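Risk register update: the risk of archive-format incompatibility is retired. Evidence:
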Amino acid sequence: MTNDTTLATIPVPGVDAPITAAEIDGQPMVSLRHACDALGIDHSKQLRKLKTKSWATVDLRATVAVDGKAREMAMIDRRTFTMWLATIDEKRVNEAARPVIVAYQAEAADALDAYFHDGGVINPRATEHQANALIFQARAQMELCQAAQGLIHPDHLEARARVVLARGLGEHAELDQTRKPLYTQDFLKGKNLSRTKLKSVAGVFGKRVKAAYIAEHGREPEMYPLDLSNGQTREVRAYTEADRPLMEQVWREHYAPLTLDVAAVKA
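Archived output:
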């Protein structure tokens, strides 16, 4: 591989304009300066901003532009480019780019909402190859759901199967809200605790909820494999939205003063 990287223009899905990019180590990398110029925003400010973001990958490269001159340029990978576009202030871009940014960010918001709350989303512009790959993935996940019968809490299993099926059909999953999975961590996040306070509370809170569940149902809550953001899987207690009142009861009895403390600090 040479030290210089040759720039070229490539089409960008969802954006009706080519973007200057290059292939680096087999991956497409976008020229941040050219992207900023196209949007009419300051390149140096955006570069400083990206250097502070944990999700951003910025690679300084000696590049050869279309005019044949060598320059050092900041290149960002596709993941960073996709996320970065969603963070741009639509009021600061030029008039020509504004409708594109507004439409892109609206679609990005819809996609993130569907991903986190419905379990997945399909791009309506997906190619036939991409669609077939998603169908294959959905089929494999449905087979896993069938194989997991008797091993996983039936409410969780049904919810997962509905999400997988809806994703394969390009639709939103229709779930019985009382049977929707509810994790103690998610319940605690809804209490607006600081990260430090949440970590200190989570372990004992989980044990108290488990004890309250046993007292009410005469059995332990079943276990469920939770997929973590780092790709690992961890066994957690399988609660549903039907158990939220039980968690609220435990919270009121043991942790209600924490809510008052948080509110006082914010005031």
